[in-house]
Amino acid sequence: VTNQVFRYAKKSGASYINKPKMRHYVHATLFTALDEDASNALRRAFKERGENVGSWRQACYKPLVNIACRHGWDIDAVFNAHPRLSIWYVPTKLRQLCHLERNNAVDC
């Protein structure tokens, strides 16, 4: 999470940000920014099944990997093209998952 994110949050009125916890949810926030309807549907499905937040958080990676696949596996380009995402680092785990899927994928 970049300092630019925190400056933006402070300017927007946030009084306190738990940086370590925020790192765990960056990809979920990114998924919401890219596809809010799909993100809400996924969150709702996990809530209805009574699953915990951690399992929902892990499930948010797969749609992001699919988005990267549709963009030629260039997850950085996906982030940089979106005005709300360009200030974020691409999470390492997301980058690793994209690399793994790219090596295993036949077609998107």
Automatic annotation (TrEMBL):
Pfam families per the UniProt record, alphabetical: C_LFY_FLO (PF17538)
This protein's UniProt keywords: Activator, DNA-binding, Nucleus, Transcription, Transcription regulation
Signal peptide: none
Cell inner membrane as UniProt keyword: no
Floricaula/leafy DNA-binding C-terminal domain: residues covered: 1-105
One MF term in the entry's GO annotations: DNA binding
InterPro entries assigned: FLO/LFY_C (IPR035209), FLO_LFY (IPR002910), Floricaula/leafy_C_sf (IPR038276)
Subcellular locations according to the entry: Nucleus
GO biological process: regulation of DNA-templated transcription
GO cellular component: nucleus
Protein task: Probable transcription factor.
Record-stated family: Belongs to the FLO/LFY family.
Protein name: Floricaula/leafy-like transcription factor
Native species: Eutrema salsugineum (Saltwater cress)
Lineage of producing organism: Eukaryota, Viridiplantae, Streptophyta, Embryophyta, Tracheophyta
